[in-house]
Each structure stands twice: as structure tokens, then as C-alpha cells.
Amino acid sequence: AEIQYQDFVVKEILVKRLCKTHRVITVNGQYPGPTLTATDGDTLVIRVTNLARYNITLHWHGILQIRNGWADGPDYITQCPIVPGATYVYKFTIINQEGTFWWHAHALWLRATVHGALIIYPKLGKPYPFDKPHREYPIILAGEWWNQDPNEVLRQATITGAAPNVSDAYTINGRHGDLFPCSNQGTSIFPVVSGETTLFRIINAAMNTELFVSIAGHLMTVVAADSAYTKPFTTTVILLGPGQTTDVLVTADQPAGRYYVAARAYASAQGVPFDNTTVTAILEYKFSSCTAIHGVQTMPPPLVPLLPAYNDTSTAAAFSAALRSPGPVNVPDPVNETLFFTVGLGLFGCPPGMICGGPNGNRFAASINNVSFVLPSTLSMLQAYYFNVPGVYTEDFPPEPPIIFDFTANNISLSLQQPVQGTKVYRLKYGSAVQIVFQGTNIVSGEEHPIHLHGYQFYVLATGFGNFNPDVDTKKFNMVDPPERNTVGVPVNGWAVIRFIADNPGVWLVHCHIDAHLMWGLAMAFIVENGEGDDQSLLPPPVDLPIC
Ligand code: C2O
Fold first, then answer.
1. Keywords on this record (predicted)?
2. Ligand 1: lining residues by beta carbon, under 6 Å
3. What pTM does this model have?
4. What is the pLDDT of residues 131-182, one digit of tens each?
5. What structural domains and CATH numbers belong to the chain?
């Protein structure tokens, strides 16, 4: 195992996109940020210096950070932010993890441009569970691109209580593709060779949008999701919620030429505005007769793939349902904790004297079990927990919603729409087997919610539409080969059931990876207590951990 040192300097640069020059916050002046690679067992030491004008933290999405929440990153959950001018060194070891991960800012909306791929290769001599591909490319889908500063979009939405402005375009590896103005030179090209196979490590780094992805003329074989290998299956379209990753193998088995890799929104909420643009990159056959004779420039224009309609919920659900672990796994059973979490939107009233931009003159809210999460501001929760500082959070997060009603009904009464605010945690004993039923609600509007659990991978036992019914739906649990993930899409007006063993002590955030929902409070946190021995206990904080 090696120690990998990296210097990350957070700074603003000028970037030209969509015919205009923008100021963009980046790591090391790169958008997207640098791709980190390491091998399972390596230790990463990443020195982050903040030269931008916003407080920042970085999160290593999918890395377990066993006993080491100090390196996890969400601001005010596991650390105070790195203030402008300051430095913090994230130090963590990869313990039995490999695959596609990513890193991103976890403060304000800095994640819109501060993100990058994190690829962990298997230990030396351990092959992939599929034929070695001839080449690998990361594909970062994102950056909804706003012509405005994304943090300004956030600020305006916070002030007015309205939905944030939708983005102006998406990007693939930082580029919009040649369907956009002034973007002809701005297309990501993935060179491939006839007959050879490429592994694409696809990351949805978008702020607020689930995305369908297809490649014209080519099938994709899904081999991993959220860094866990899957039973391979072949498809023409994949779906990724923000936070999710999917690895696919693509064989260049078509006539030599150029084929679009394209992504477009899956917008599950009814009547809510979204960015309906199509972002493209190009799969380009090399050494084809066409290239040799005419050169790449004169090759015929690329073929556009067929993408599902923006509201194609059945395609979205079918894709998620097709994911399986490669073979039988040990599903935690029986469970010690049976939690039922409603996830969805809500409303806050408008303070007197203010004009609010949310539905019917209210402000948007979001909640889990009717608690709208409020970030602490004086200290991080992990520091408060470790040092026994009172007043930062309360331990009364409810294990189920205060009232059971028809969560997916169309007209839910106003009295059920207003969540309470709080910084509430739920405490778990070390080693307990936990089941969570996430139940989507149709308060204000139903929408698919990609729910991310920090510090863990979990099994997704089942998903479905409507209200979860234990009598019927428990029978649908896949106890044999459920997929392992860190971010689960809770279907629009539906439910998802996950299980995990709480064996990583610390404070771990659970949240919707749609940042608009996170800002409205769709989050909660677990405290996982220490176990018996030292090797089951949270490590002490690093000396340079920022204080608030
Ligand atoms: Cu990828 Cu809490 O985040």
C-alpha cells in the first residue's frame, strides 16, 4: 500500500462556456477537478487550501471512512468549514473498497463546479470480475451549468423560498457538446478502437437532476453501481440520480464512425420546471478507414441516441430493479432497528412582511419524518459528540412519522404540509442491524429522491410505488442478491427498503442528494456509538481539524 499525496487549491478561475466568460470556483484551476486514482489499501493525504471567497469542505463520496468521520467532510456535520485562506489535510485509508467514487464540495452549492472522479483500483493481482477492458474513461455528468454563480442561485432561492433557477445546460467532463452555441470545440471525445471494449465509469455529479444516459448504436453492459459490482446486464439506457455512479462496458462493434454519448433529465416531479437540454460527448472510432482517408473533421456527423422521455418513470424503475449483486450476499437479518422515514417536500409559511416565492406565497421546505434538518452553525455535530459539547443537536429524531396517513395521495391537507425545524439525530448501538423504509410523499409534489447515507454501503432489498405495505411488500424483499449501494433512488410516490450493520462509529449524514431538497432540510443524522474495543471506536480528531 502506498501513501498518495495531493495538493488541492480551491480557487476561482475564468472559464468560457455558452459564449460567455464566467468566474468558476475550481480545484487547481480545473473544471471538473482532477481525477484521483489509488489502489485499495492506499492512504490518501489531500491538502486542501482555500483561496476562494466561500467557506468550503470536501467529501469523498462512497468512501466509508471507517472510525474516521473527521475526513468525511460535510460542513457542520463532521467538521467546521475551511475558511478562506485556511488549509485542512484530509487523510484517510481505503479499506477493502474498489471501484468508481467521486469527491465533491459539501458546503453551499460549491459542489456545482468543485467535484472530480476518485477511482480505486483493486489490490495488485486481483482482477476485475469481468474481462479486462482495453481502456477506461471516467464520465462526469454534471455540472448543471448556470450562467449565474451557483451560490448566487442558492442565495436567491434561500431568500425568496422559491425553487432555485433551473440550470442552462449540463456538461460531460466539463463540456456541453456541440448541440450548444459556441460549444463546437467543446465536446468531450472518447476514442475507441473497433472490436475493443471500454469501461466507462459514469458519475452523476449534477446538483438537482437525475439523468438518463445512452450511447447511439451501442449497448452498455452494467458491471457496477456505487462502487459495488453487479451481476452484468445489458441495456440501451441507464439512469443515475445525483450522487450515484454506474460502470458500464461498451464494445466498439458498430461500423467505424462517431456516435453521441448523450444524457438528458429524468424529471419525476409533475409540472415542475427543469433543464430539458441534451448534453453530448462523442464516442469516436480510431483507425477506421474513414478517419484514414478523410480525417476526423470530414467524418459524417455523429448519430444521436434515443433517450427516454423526461417523465418515463417505468424505464427509470426498470433500470433500478435490474440491479443485483453478482452472487448471494449476507443480508443483515433479523434486524434490531426498524425505521420508517418519510422523505419529501413541504412548506413553511411566509414570515410577516416578506414576499415569498414558493407555492401559494409560502416557502419550500423538505423533511424526513416531518423534521426539516437545520445545519448547526457553532460547531460540527461530530466535534460536539466527541467533545460532549451540549446544545449543538438533540437526540429526539423520530423513528417514524408523527402521523401515518396516505403519503402518496393527491390532495394532502395543509396541516400535514408544515414540518418542524431541528438538528435532530437518531442514536444507533454499535453493530445493530438497521432497516430503513424510505417512503416518498406527495406533499406539495412527489419526486424521486436519491437518498445518500454517509459512512456506509447498504443493501437495497426492494423498491415499489405507492404506500409501503408491510404485509405485502416484505414478501418482495430480495434476501439473496440485493444490490449494494450508497445512494438509493426512492421512486416518485413510492418506497425503498435498505439494510446495513451500524459498525462504523461516528456521526453520519443521511440526505437527499438533490441539493435543492437538501437546502430545504431533507436530511437527518445518525450517531453510531462506539463498540467494545479500541478498534470499534471513533479515532481522535486530527490536530488541524478546523474549528468554528
Ligand atoms: Cu455525495 Cu453528502 O454527499
1. Apoplast, Copper, Lignin degradation, Metal-binding, Oxidoreductase, Repeat, Secreted, Signal
2. 59, 61, 74, 104, 106, 243, 452, 454, 509, 511, 513
3. 0.96
4. 999 999 999 997 678 888 899 999 999 999 999 999 989 999 999 988 888 8
5. 1-126 (2.60.40.420), 130-325 (2.60.40.420), 337-536 (2.60.40.420)
Question: E strands of 165-236, at which residues?
Answer: 169-172, 189-193, 197-204, 210-215, 220-225, 228-235
Grid coordinates of 150? 451557483
The number of residues making up the chain comes to 548
Give the span between the Cα atoms of 363 and 156, in whole angstroms.
12
Nearest atom in ligand 1 to 104's CA? 1
Q: List the 238-240 sheet strands across, edge first.
A: 189-193, 279-286, 258-266, 210-215, 238-240
Residue 94 reports pLDDT greater than 90? yes
Among 531, 438, 533, 525, which Cα is nearest to 72's?
525
ipTM: 0.99
DSSP string of 279-328?
EEEEEEEES-HHHHHH-GGGSPPPBPPP---TT-HHHHHHHHHT---SS-
Cα–Cα distance for residue pair 72/325, rounded to 1 Å: 26
